[in-house]
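Service request form, structural biology core

Requester: graduate student, group of Dr. S.
Request type: structure prediction, single chain
Budget code: on file
Notes: please return the result as structure tokens.

Sequence provided:
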Amino acid sequence: MEIVHVYTKLRGEFGRQCLFSDRPAELLVDVPPDPSLGLQFIQKTPRDQAVQACRDMSEHQVNTERFESDSCGINHVEGGWPKDVDPDEMEQTIRFRKKVEKDEGYMNSILQLGSIMEHCIRQNNAVDIYQLYFEDEEEVEESLEPPSAKTINVFRDPNEVKRTVTGLSWHPDGGRKLAAAYSCLEFQRATRDMSLDSYIWDIENPNRPEMTLKPASPLVCLDYNPKDPHTLVGGSYNGQIAYWDTRRGSQPVELCSVEQSHRDPVYKIIWLQSKTGTDAFSASTDGQVLWWDVRKLSEPTERLVLDPGREGNLDRALGAISLEFEATMPTKFMVGTEQGVVFSCNRKAKTPSEKIVCTYDGHHGPVYALQRNPFFPKNFLTVGDWTARIWSEDIKESSIMWTKYQMAYLMDACWSPSRPSVFFTVKTDGVLDVWDILFKQNDPTLSLKVCDKALYSLRVQDNGRLVACGSQQGGATLLEMCSGLSTLQKNEKSLLAAMFERETKREKILEARQREIRLKERSRSEQSREDDGGREDGEESPDQLIDRAEKDFYSVVETELRRRRERDEETCPRYVSIKKKKVINRGSETQREGKKGEKEDRTTG
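Core staff response, request fulfilled:
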């Protein structure tokens, strides 16, 4: 290595402090100015510029390719047996167990594992890891955040010819799957190349449906079995009922015959509360409600004709388009019709006429949605024409609450399962409205433009957090509500119960008043009819009465004119004097004419 500079210093001077002293200034270098360089100098225009003392960064958004994943599983039935032992043969399994239990290695293993297992059991009994320590404490009210929602996923119809999502159903175990029914409800708009399939989606994977359902006719509605998450039942466009078991493939396990099915599309099908968990009932626009046992779909177990006259006449039946069944009221169910009438029915009635208990009439068009409040089953929600209405079972003349008329047609609605005062509606302009009737009654709390096409179906997950909307273009949009719209608020049940009771009482008072007015009008009309029937023969005919009325009218007019003339004479003396002068002049002229006549008579004589 080459040494460039060498500094020498005595050893005793190492670490000595520096000593400074004052001395006069000394010029070391003198550089005189160069005039030629000064001529080349260009003065810079002063300007202000802000400088940020940090690194410059930019933000960009890119739409990356979605990672496609497949879920695979193994159905493990029973294993661990030797090849020569058949697990289905009880004798062989018992013989093999006895042989193993006599083995010394088995006994030693049991003794070693027994102490470990005993320790784990005692530990589990001592500490409950699932214990909720703060269950009884009141929930702390969160900060009042504005109501909001965000889109999680959009499940699009994978076929080229897009169809309307006419029905949705959440998987009963956790709601990780969503079943969607696809069909074209526009008359004679279905093309030959249009697919008949419906799909089950995994909400985490919108790229490809998890399972395809292949019906004989497009599905209009479908519903998961709440007791068995592997089974579904669906209603087809041609009126047939189909039953699927997802463990047995895409084809329906059972299918009812065309002769025993509905004559029109099945718009709603619901599972019933039963011991077997295999009963369901369906409604169609052919005017019938049919009960089915999915184990044997050859024919319906029961039938009800929606005849308003309660005579069972199918020609006069009203077409059903919505259906409601509450598990806590197993004998009651409700049906919404195309004519805007809601039927309240009792399944356990003996005769068909007694099954239709009463009707509620309040819509100008079809009742597309009908659902009881999960917290207050006596109050139910209906959607038809341009309004949503809340009814009470005790008031049949009118609804107790209703929204104002919207600019677009309402197609579906449902209550929130977690908040009793919140319900959702979808409209044909692609808007999802969230209503909180405790907060605001005239306008929705939150309105979201979900898509540009009409929304036809709506279903809320059991926890009230996720909402699925089906559109006319074949897209099922999954939205997540904020905690304020999905979490039960303090005193919400008591406040809503007081509101429903108050509105019900008000409608009862109005209904009693209207009944009293109608009774008075009826008695008045009956009295007038009796008076007309008790007229004697000597009374005047209608023509004579009209003539007499005209004479009375003209006499009254003449009397009024005379009275006004006399009043004018009293209030205007000048008019009276002028009139007297005219009378005097007229009298003198008469005298002159009389004298002139006398002279003529004399001359003639």
